[in-house]
């Protein structure tokens, strides 16, 4: 399996329920897991690199706190900027994709709009091809992603297929066509109950928030004036979102929680969510506190992950060159 994130800041509970828990579960099934910290991708929509080192540090701390465990020997966390042979795959891959395809990518278009860019750099259009290199260098065949990443995954499948068709006519295919794995966790809205949870919209509970900060944020979460609590996502999205959070934390269905809160009103509901979420995050926070004491821990995790990724990429590149008949010295 391969998946990853851009180091643009610490993660929030939407990431936790939407993808991180899923990754930990795959790890517990014994599945080899590569997690790419996509630092080059950050440069698609901003010029400054100042915050990348701190963001990488926070991101890896979040990973380790939720239970992703490089000591398991099957989980490898690495930054793609540090894996030269991975990046080299980008060049042949670019020859397999048309300009029109890059231009039509709906996720890229949304990101350009969202960032309000007046000038768009070429990495913005080509990062989905780079992402194919992230996935294919380690023969990733399972890629847990959010819906917005599906166009990129489709492009990765095309690149794998086209490479095999163009260059592997008489031999075994060099790349597998990876499958996306969509999380079955429903989308979590922000504390405004209106938009997707996101740090930039200022409606998020960060994973590193303390129990008290979490309680304070949930007190301010938007609800409605109907004292009778019921799970009605279409009519009462704010209340439904809190019920969903409580449900994801406690494992109890949202309808059952609603029935229990009943006519207790939004105050009772907020107290319920706060307890459930703080209970769920207790071990995560304890691990983070222990890990944050020693900055060297994150550095060691990355050093080991990068070493493994380089071994894998260095073994893959000759195979790719051989298929392209560029293995002159052999
Ligand atoms: N584009 C992903 C994001 O913005 C991060 C990413 C980079 C990724 N490379 C990947 C995700 C490979 C899955 C597979 O979150």
Summarize the structure.
The chain contains 13 helices and five strands. It has helices at residues 13-28, 52-66, 84-88, 90-94, 99-104, 106-115, 122-136, 150-167, 211-219, 237-250, 254-261, 265-292, 296-323, and strands at 2-5, 33-37, 75-79, 142-145, 179-182.
Protein described:
The chain has helices spanning 13-28, 52-66, 84-88, 90-94, 99-104, 106-115, 122-136, 150-167, 211-219, 237-250, 254-261, 265-292, 296-323; strands spanning 2-5, 33-37, 75-79, 142-145, 179-182. The chain has 330 residues and is mainly alpha-helical. The strands form 2 sheets. A 3-stranded parallel beta sheet has the order 1-2-3. A two-stranded parallel sheet has the order 4-5. Helix 2 (52-66) links the parallel strand 2 (33-37) and strand 3 (75-79). Helix 7 packs across helix 8 (150-167). It is elongated and about 75 Å long. The chain starts with a strand and ends in a 7-residue tail after the last helix. The site of tryptophan has 14 residues, from strand 1, helix 7 and strand 4. Tryptophan (TRP) binds next to strand 1, helix 7 and strand 4.
Q: What share of the residues does DSSP label as strand, in percent? A: 5-15%
- What is the tally of helical segments? 13
Low-confidence stretches: none
Task: Write down the Rg.
Answer: 22 Å
Summarize the helix and strand pattern as letters.
EHEHEHHHHHEHEHHHHH
Largest sheet: 3 strands, parallel
The hetero molecules present are: tryptophan
Mean pLDDT score: 95
Strand order of the largest sheet: 1-2-3
Number of strands: 5
CA(first)-CA(last) distance:
32 Å
């Amino acid at each position: 399996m391969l998946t990853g994130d851009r180091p643009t800041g610490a993660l929030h509970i939407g990431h936790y329920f939407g993808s991180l828990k899923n990754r930990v579960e795959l790890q517990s099934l014994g599945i080899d897991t590569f997690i790419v910290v996509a630092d080059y991708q950050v440069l698609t929509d901003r010029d400054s690199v100042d915050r990348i080192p701190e963001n990488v540090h926070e991101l890896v701390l979040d990973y380790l706190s939720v239970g992703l465990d490089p000591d398991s020997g099957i989980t490898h966390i690495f930054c793609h900027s540090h894996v030269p042979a991975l990046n080299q795959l980008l060049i042949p891959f670019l020859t397999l994709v048309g300009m029109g395809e890059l231009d039509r990518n709906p996720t890229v278009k949304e990101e350009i709009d969202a960032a309000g860019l007046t000038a768009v750099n070429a990495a913005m259009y080509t990062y989905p091809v780079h992402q194919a290199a992230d996935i294919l260098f380690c023969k990733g065949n399972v890629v847990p992603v959010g819906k917005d990443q599906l166009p990129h995954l489709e492009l990765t499948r095309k690149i794998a297929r086209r490479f095999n068709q163009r260059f592997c006519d008489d031999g075994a295919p060099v790349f597998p066509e990876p499958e996306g794995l969509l999380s079955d966790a429903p989308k979590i809205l922000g504390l405004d109950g209106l938009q997707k949870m996101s740090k930039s919209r200022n409606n998020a509970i960060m994973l590193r928030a303390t129990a008290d900060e979490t309680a304070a944020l949930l007190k301010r979460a938007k609800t409605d004036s109907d004292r009778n609590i019921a799970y009605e996502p279409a009519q009462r999205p704010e209340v439904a979102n809190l019920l969903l959070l409580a449900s994801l934390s406690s494992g109890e269905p949202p309808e059952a929680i609603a029935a229990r809160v009943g006519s207790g009103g939004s105050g009772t509901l907020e107290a319920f969510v706060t307890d459930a979420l703080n209970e769920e995050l207790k071990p995560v926070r304890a691990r983070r506190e222990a890990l944050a004491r020693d900055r060297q821990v994150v550095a060691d995790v990355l050093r080991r992950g990068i070493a493994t990724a380089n071994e894998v990429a260095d073994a893959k590149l000759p195979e790719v060159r051989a298929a392209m008949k560029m293995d002159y010295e052999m």
